[in-house]
Amino acid sequence: MRTILENPRYTGRQAWNRVGTDRDGVDLRTGRPGQVPNLREEWAVSLEVVHTPLVSVRDFVQVQRVRARRPNDEGERREYLLAGLVVCGVCGRRMDAHWVHGRPGYRCRHGYGSAYPRPADGTKPVYRREDHIVEGMAELAALPERLRTGAGGLPVQLRDAGLVVVCGPAGVEVRSCML
Hints:
The chain is of the alpha+beta class. The chain is 21% helix and 26% strand. The protein has a three-stranded mixed sheet. Strand 9 and strand 10 form a beta hairpin. The longest helix is centred in the middle third of the chain and has 12 residues, at 57-68. The radius of gyration is 17 Å and the shape is globular. It starts with a helix and ends with a strand.
């Protein structure tokens, strides 16, 4: 069930690199190298809709938001206001929600994780605290007034308007939704 809930293909887009091959491990059922899931930031998802969607982008993002609110190992619920709505301005991937220093934040490692070494000349990861993102959005003159007022309804208003928050080295901007 988790695989279905996390699969962006149901929004009508093509997804690549969701699973890799572990050449050292062997799938006991087949005797061949085993398959292992790749980190979400390593996935590649098409911007274009390539087949009839089974769920809307809004519903897909809402499911990701619900899953992000699940209790952690200590039983705490961590609330991410912009879960599923923050995109990396460098590589275009959705940024992972993560808890850092007691508050919500978002990060993108551009397809590199602890298991995959980054090239020496590779792009540095993008990290943004959620409160800094919201502050940066409030300063955007091009952002409609209805989206600038109050953070409580901000995620719903962004989803309804089909917008995402793009975070990059130059700051924060709001663009039309790309999954």
